[in-house]
Amino acid sequence: MHVQISRLEAALVAGDQTAIQHTAHRMRGGCLQLSAQALAALCAQIETAAEPAASAPLIAQLRPCYHETLAALRQGEE
């Protein structure tokens, strides 16, 4: 997931909306398989954003949301 978030950040810097949408779409699918609903919803918002500038604040939320989701999933294992 860290690699995918880094890809999104790089695509944002490059202004590559197509790469942003494709990466967010793939991430959303993986998140849904893990029942990581909040992270999947954030990826869906990124995927449907009209332009990189609209994606920027959403992409900035990904790492914190990922860490929260990871912590919740780990608690569920215990």
TrEMBL record:
GO BP annotations listed: phosphorelay signal transduction system
Phosphoprotein in keyword set: yes
Keyword annotations of the record: Phosphoprotein
UniProt modified residues of type Phosphohistidine: H25
HPt domain ranges (all copies): 1-78
Pfam families linked: Hpt (PF01627)
Protein name in UniProt: HPt domain-containing protein
